[in-house]
Amino acid sequence: MIAGALLRRTPGTLASAIRLHRNAAVVPAARFMSTHVTNAACEDHEPGFLGSVETFFDRAAKISGVSEKSLAGIRAVDSVLSVKFPVEIDPDTHIIIEGYRAQHSRHRLPCKGGIRFSDEVDLQEVEALASLMTYKCAVVDVPFGGAKGGVKLNPKKFTPAQLERITRRYTMELCQKNFIGPGVDVPAPDVGTGPREMSWIMDTYRQFNPQDVNAAGCVTGKPISQGGVRGRNEATGLGVYYGVREFLQFPEVQKMSGLTGDIAGKSVIVQGFGNVGYWAAKFFHNNGAKIIGIGEHDVAAYDPNGLDVEAIFKHRSEKGTFRGFGNAEIIEDPIKVMERECDILIPAALERQIGLKNVKNIKAKIIGEAANGPITPDAHDYLVSQGKVVIPDLLLNAGGVTVSYFEWLKNLSHVRFGRMSRKWEEAGKSRLLTLVEENAGRQLTPQERRAVIHGAEEHELVYSGLEDTMIGACEETRATAALKNTDFRTAALVNAIQKISTVTTQSGQMFL
Q1: Catalytic residue among 112, 148, 266, 410
Q2: Residue 15 has what pLDDT?
Q3: Is 148 annotated as catalytic?
Q4: Which residues pair with 111 in a beta bridge?
């Protein structure tokens, strides 16, 4: 009743034989499954998600200066786990669940990447997302390889108890095949999963590895009570905000877009109102931007005067839809909201949302990819040719993996960030402030004093670390784009390829 396939890339000519065998065996079943959600904007001849990732990679590879030998190793997916297992829905009903886990690169360990629950999941998607994770980690200097997992189901059709059984069984498969562990492969939340599922995964791993003192580090995105880190939930959306803010300050971006360098006053449309879309919209709104459109899976809401992010989030939580929200215009085809006039467009849903069918209708001056792979290669080329600024996914949505890295570090150190230093920092500031007061002849009020000497708490340190990471990665991407005279996506991929090549070259490779 249980079927599993474990496929590894091995050196030399045998690797090609294995990959050809894998392709011949798997392609007809899962590799090119098409769905309306990810095909609606695309022409038939446009590549799928994996093909898009590989196309972008090949473009960057040509100008990276990295040898063909190294490029071949970087491009290939290392390992893929495919499993099928039965789950009891009720005493008389069992269903077969399909799951995948792909490890794209183990040039650094552990591998890192989310697990999504979606009926859109297929092998092609998982491999593409794993590849993106490798490049994403390299772009923001997070010392992980790339991985991704997925379970083919619609979580809304299952009860919490059923989802727990499915999650634990999937985790058991990962444990048995050595596809999970603090030093091996560390999952995280993705579409359709969250802190609850990560807790189930950690607990299952712990049951199989009771002697592993670092078991909490086997997964990130956990609740705070289970070893999570404050700031992880909003990390990807916050990273999107930081990235767009930084790019707006670059003179060349201001020239291309005709926009000023401030977030305040900019009109923003967000496609997708899940975790990433909600937090991105919230941070833009809180910093003075006007959120004029939000798209979801059923409909989109649009108001040129601006939408109240918290109010529409509450409305949707209560009603399950944007319908009936205030004076907002309801757009029945939600993908059409991206075609409205705005300064900044944030695709934060699924891949392949902007293709040749709708790219000529995109009016935004800056497109920030909060989702993975929302723009196809041909659509990307058209946008760039029209002078649009495209901030790529492997840079812009790297906030999640950056803060996952912080959570992993916290789990390995077994101490909350700030616990050892906060009071010492406050005491030092207090002594310095006392000297200033004595020399100035003025005493601060208790409120002023508390504000000045306040020591950083965990979420503040996480925000600071994320902001510093995004600023550095944006500057690196900008510099490479100028040096290579290319677009920002290609520049970010060139940086990633060169960093990965440096690691593999300097460490050496066995059995080549």
Answers
A1: 148
A2: 33
A3: yes
A4: 145, 185
